[in-house]
Amino acid sequence: MLTMETNISKIRQDFPALKRLVRGRDLVYLDNAATTLKPQSVIDAITHYYTDLSSNVHRGVHFLSEESTARFEEAREKVSQFISARQSAEIVFTRGTTDAINLVSQSYGKTFIKSGDEILITEMEHHSNIVSWQILCKEKGCVLKVAPITDEGELVMDEFEKLIGPKTKMIALVYVSNVLGTINPVKDIIRLAHERNIPVLIDGAQAVGQFPVDVVDLDCDFFAFSAHKMFGPTGVGVLYAKAEYLNLMPPIQGGGDMILSVSFDKTTYNTIPYKFEAGTPNIAGVIGLGAAVEYINQLGFESIVQHEKDISAYLTQSLGEVEGLKIIGRAKNKVPIASFVLDHVHPHDIGTIIDEEGVAVRTGHHCAQPLMSRYGLPATARASFSLYNTKEEVDILIKAIEKVKAVFK
Questions:
Q1: Which CATH number fits domain 44-297: 3.30.70.100, 3.40.50.300, 3.40.640.10, 3.40.47.40?
Q2: Would you give the distance in Å from CA 184 to the centre of its chain?
Q3: Is 220 a catalytic residue?
Q4: What is the percent of the chain with per-residue pLDDT over 90, rounded to a whole number?
Q5: Which of 78, 105, 145, 251 has the most beta carbons within 10 angstroms of its beta carbon?
C-alpha cells in the first residue's frame, strides 16, 4: 500500500506516458478530468488478452473462450467489490458513463416516466446528464427541472429541496463536477429523494478513482462511471443499478448474449446483467478495467485521498496568488480540479502557450455549456490532478501561466 513517505517517483514510473518529452520538455499532464493516464499493469492486461486469449466470451466451450470468460467475469466481480455492490449481477458493462446514463433514461425512463412527470438535475451537470434526459422529455412530454448553484459552485440545498415535488420521478446529478471539482452531498440528496420514493441516478465519472465509493452506504439506485477516468481503458464503463430496478427494466438493444431463447414468435431475455449487454462486449476493455481496480486497491485510497487533498490545497493557494487569474468554483469540499480564467486572455490561448512548456490542460466548455452560461463565460482553462501529479508540477503550471501573462502584457 502507498504511504505518503513513498517516493512519488516510484508511482510515476508505473505510467509510461510520463516518460515522454513534449516539445522537448518533461510532460506535465494535468488533464486527468478528461482521461487519466494508464499504468503499465493495465496496458499489460489488455495486451495479454489480445496476445494470448483473443476469444469471445460466454459462447464457447474451448479453452480460450472459457479463459476469456473467466477473466471477463472476474473483472465484474472486482468492480462489484470495488464499489461495494450487493452482488455482481448489479454491474452492467457499458461503453462509458454517457452510455450508462442513456441506458437508464431509455429503459427505466421510457417505461416508468410519463407525460407531466418531472426530472430534477443541477446546473453543474455534464452534457451526458442533460441531453439524455432532454431526449426523454421530448419523447414523453415530461419536464426537466434544474437546481441552482452558488457562485462558489455549491448546490443551493434549500432550493434543491423545494424543487422536489409530487411530480418528481427521477433525480439525476453529478457526484463530482468535472468543471468545478465540487463534491456534492449526494448521500443527503438520496435520503431526501427516498423519503419521497424517488429513484436517484449518480454520475460518478469524476468520483470513482478519487475516493472510495460505497453504493450500498449511499443507497443510490443507479451509479454510472467510466474506466478511462480511473486509469483504465477508453470505451468501457459501468452502470451499477439495484437488482430490483434492473429486473423491472426492459433491454434497449437486441442481439446475442442478451437472450435465453429466440423464435420468430417470441424472445425470452437473459437474466441480469446480461440482458443489457447485447453483442460482443469490449472484452479487452473490461479486463483492463479489472486491472485498473487492482492497481487502485494496491495503492490504497487512504493515501490517494490524502495526496490529492494536499495537491488541491497547494493548487488553490498557488493559483490564487497569480494576479489577474480567477478560479471558477471555490467549494469547500472538492477534488483537485481547478477551472480558471485570466484577464484579457482567451482560455484557448492559455492552453496553447502553456503547451509549449510541456503542460497539458483542457480548455473549452468541458461539455458543460449551461454551467459556463451560469458564470457568463464561453470557456475556461482547467487543470485537473491525479495521484501521480506533484506540487512541483503545480509550480511548473504557475510559471507557464506567468509566461502567458508576459506574452499578452
A1: 3.40.640.10
A2: 14
A3: no
A4: 96
A5: 105
